[in-house]
Q: What sequence folds into this?
């Protein structure tokens, strides 16, 4: 049985982590998985999936982030962990551009197969100084990826081209591995929704957004859209699920909407099918997404989606459930929703499942591809 070292951040309920957990659930009997979690210096945060990983017999190791301790110390820690684990057949990094330092350390440790996996379309915001620093680091990381990595994976073509060179994007070891889902868990869900616990009537129109509250998710604009809907007399509830990561984004969201009883913040939701099946419409306003797995989950649940151009067209599975709206005018968005989604179109479950499978978002099919490459 081959040993696969998965290199990740804290295993919370993000899109990449959800996809990785579904892969592990499918393949843990075929491979010996180990997890190496990169954390802030000295911290050992408990991830949402840690207990499940341990229940599957998977060991979790921790390493201080290279930006905290430097390349030399990071390399030393990596070497010690590899020696502690013993033989490793594959290193699979999920840290986007930080896969460069992982590749270098893995190659120096004699590991033959090194997969760098890009889960996002890379772009840096902030001041000119911070952009220069970030792009300089990206240049170095790319140099290490080009020199040491053996396989180049991404969740979409956009994510692939944003991290890897054209040469590597076109080589035989480049692969788009969709951030796939456990399809039937969403499409065939028949349990209770979360409407009752939120005191939302069954006949109420519910708009929902799922994702960490961070600047890139653009919740400030989502709040403006919802407020514009309410100002126009559109009677709807708005449900937000996700961990707070940006105080400024969270503050704007709550200051704008929290005084209205039609706003509901549920934090981190473990029962995603119950959450999505509470929605009539999914609202995605992100500035950019590597894929936008939440939109795929929503479609699999039969929910119509109104998305920004920050979502790649790849996330539209072809079930006639997605609309992309351009621009940042909340009134335009509100009018579009009122004019197009006052009545919800019901899509046949079989049609949805076929569309999701044909688009490559069924974890069963993606697991077969991953298994084959791990074994190659």
A:
């Amino acid at each position: 049985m081959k040993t696969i070292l998965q290199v990740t951040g804290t295993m919370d309920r993000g899109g990449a982590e959800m996809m990785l957990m579904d892969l592990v659930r499918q393949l843990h009997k075929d491979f010996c998985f180990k997890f190496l979690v990169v954390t802030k210096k000295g911290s050992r945060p408990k991830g949402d999936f840690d207990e499940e990983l341990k229940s599957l017999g998977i060991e979790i190791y921790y390493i201080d982030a290279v930006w905290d301790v430097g390349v030399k110390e990071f390399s030393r820690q990596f070497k010690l962990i590899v020696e502690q684990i013993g033989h490793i057949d594959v290193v699979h990094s999920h840290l986007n551009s930080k896969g460069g330092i992982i590749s270098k350390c893995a190659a120096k440790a004699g590991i033959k197969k090194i997969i760098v996996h890009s889960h996002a379309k890379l772009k840096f915001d902030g001041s000119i100084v911070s952009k220069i620093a970030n792009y300089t680091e990206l240049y170095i990381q790319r140099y290490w990826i080009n020199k040491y990595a053996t396989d180049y994976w991404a969740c979409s073509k956009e994510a692939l081209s944003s991290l890897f060179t054209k040469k590597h994007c076109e080589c035989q070891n480049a692969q788009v591995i969709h951030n796939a889902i456990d399809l039937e868990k969403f499409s065939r869900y028949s349990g209770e929704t979360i409407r009752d616990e939120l005191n939302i009537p069954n006949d109420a129109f519910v708009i929902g957004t799922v994702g960490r509250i961070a600047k890139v998710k653009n919740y400030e604009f989502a709040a403006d859209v919802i407020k514009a809907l309410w100002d126009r007399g559109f009677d709807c509830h708005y449900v937000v699920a996700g961990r707070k990561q940006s105080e400024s984004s969270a503050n704007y969201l709550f200051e704008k909407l929290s005084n209205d009883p039609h706003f509901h913040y549920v934090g981190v939701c473990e029962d995603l099918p119950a959450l999505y099946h509470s929605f009539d419409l999914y609202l995605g306003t992100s500035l950019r997404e590597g894929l936008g797995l939440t939109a795929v989950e929503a479609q699999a649940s039969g929910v119509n989606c109104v998305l920004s151009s920050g979502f790649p067209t790849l996330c539209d599975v072809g079930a006639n459930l997605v609309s992309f709206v351009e621009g940042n005018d909340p009134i335009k968005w509100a009018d579009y929703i009122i004019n197009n989604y006052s009545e919800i179109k019901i899509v046949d479950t079989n049609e949805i499942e076929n569309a999701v499978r044909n688009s490559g978002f069924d974890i069963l099919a993606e697991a077969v591809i991953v298994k084959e490459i791990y074994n190659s």
The chain is about 40% helix and 15% strand.
